[in-house]
Fold this protein.
Amino acid sequence: MKYIDEFRDGTLARGLARSISAEADPARTYRLMEFCGGHTHAIFRYGVQDLMPANVRFVHGPGCPVCVLPMARIDQAIAMAVEHGVTLCTYGDLMRVPASERKSLLKAKAEGADIRMIYSTQDALAIARKAPERQVVLFAIGFETTTPPTAVALKTARAEGLENFSVYCNHVLTPAALGTILNAANETSGDKAGVQLDGILGPSHVSTVIGSRSYECVPAEFGKPVVIAGFEPLDVMQSVLMLIRQINNGQAQVENQYTRAVTRDGNRKAQALMAEVFRPHETFEWRGLGFLPGSALRIAEAYAEFDAEQRFPVAPGSSREIKGCECPSVLRGVMEPTDCKLFGTVCTPENPMGACMVSSEGACAAYWSYGRFRQPAAPQPATASVDAA
Amino acid sequence: MARHDTKQSPVPRRFAGRLDLEHGAVDMSHGSGGRAMAQLIDELFRVHLENALLAQGNDQALFEPPPGRLVTSTDGHVISPLFFPGGDIGALAVHGTVNDVAMAGARPLYLTASFILEEGLPLADLERIVASMGAAARAAGVQVIAGDTKVVERGKGDGCFISTTGIGVVPDGIQISGDRAQPGDAILVSGSLGDHGVAILSKRENLGFETEIASDSQSLHDLVAAMIEAVPDIHCLRDPTRGGLATTLNELALQSRVGMQIREPAIPIRAEVSAACELLGLDPLYVANEGKLIAICAGDRAETLLAAMRTHPKGREAAIIGQVVTDPHQFVQMETAFGGSRIVDWLAGEQLPRIC
């Protein structure tokens, strides 16, 4: 594949691995957080960790849109489909995420709810146009990457007068989450205790929209270097080398490895679209990180008629995690998936207890699917299961 | 299978007018056992599937078993769309079962077919499907010797479902089984992977991308015959259909209680298939095939087997992709093209496109 294989070249990878080994100071450890699930996926899928010296460690971040969505939001989506009989359109990743009472969108669908898997917001619009007698709700989730397409869908619906289309908005914002994790790094004990980090591999696709400028507060406030890194394995390795150089030199600044797609200002047109259609939520709950102010978007008043939460009100669910599930700690980078008692015993991709085991961007799924041979005693799935706490 | 069966009547029947194969559609009467059904059988099924055993016209086909060990396999075929680049459900229903029979090293002989048709299916589509089935059966040297047709109400089927059962005979001395992989054995594939799954995906209505990938749907019994002639002691054969290469290797590893080590650069995958999978966030190792096989044989026979496969038109792109190893965990591991290593795990649920 042209323009793809170039970024997965084994020879170049070995060259970069040699440079990393040569430049990494054996007297210290480099704890680098890859923010995005896309990075986690690349690291495991291509075996990038194998090419790193032992003192360069990846800490997996919360950048998995499915993983950070609290269970209550999925419960509400199911309630919309069941109580109001709407056609709920969702991205595939979300279908198997556990909801309360051992439900999921997939199970609700099997029980008769009209839930459709879509590949883009345009699919949801097409469904609404085709079935004017149905109320079609787009279950919109994701970071800044998937937000502009939702904005376009809302504007299209307005322009076409599509009265049977609305959006259940769950879009979240990257900088707020990153700030929370770095703040937590200052806490060394208690519930809020964070993970110690030496540098950040910054978001890839998200940054094409919001620009590298959005991270400039990180070196300024927290003294940590950031390198915006592409999602291909060579991107990740080159970014690691750039971080190591900054750390070795005692520098902390935002560097952009992913220059083929990311600029300092980002995509201004997309930003303008988002600003027109959305407003920041005062506070929004993230699985693992709790309620974070200014960390999510809601639909602006001007588009309130397309807000599914206003059109189809449902009782706010309460977020209850599965007992023993360590997704929250995994999402903060405090625990590794293998530290969770459920990992690989009762929680596997076939029978996920937490969202991190569902999405291929989730750290648990990546550990299980690609990396469990690295463990001294690989866990075998048990037949037992646990109930929601 | 009582009076509704699509068996030819020994007595010639007369109908008021011929079936309208151009504009007609399947209706409930075509499954009712009455005249309409008899006419559908006579003017459509029999025309395309004709053979002496089917012509016996009984509720069963009577035949003398050939000498040797027999194998049988059954497979239900449901696919949307019914017609896709490189094939259709009719040919697929033949290839799928012929291949399952052939994976024992067998020569396939007979098929039976059960059709579940949805009210409203155009007769022209049904004829196209049955004609394709007949052509695929003749090409594979098998006869469809018994059949059945049912019709379900509109909305209760996906146009057409076809279940086929196959019977074949295994040559003496051939012992191919999923539990025979041993450490040191070589793992081969007969050609490029993922073509069928991507061809189907490319035609689903909500994926509007154009691709020139055609399904690899084809029967493999002739390739298998050439392979066992070259290397009679093939340990395992399996066609990586649903779940793709990854799932099939895991099945074999579990059944034989071994591990597998494969090399990513050695696995043949077309650039177009890689690109489509890349776009959709899918892994081609998990995408379905309908005309490829995995073979496992002793390491020192691998080159001979590979040469035999490559001289056959259906194995021109065959490759040795790895070896069987001792592993109490029965993992399938892959050395990535990038230089690292990872597990190639069982597929969990369906492969779903990623969000980011």
In short: Chain B has a mean pLDDT of 90. The first helix of chain B runs from residue 35 to 49.
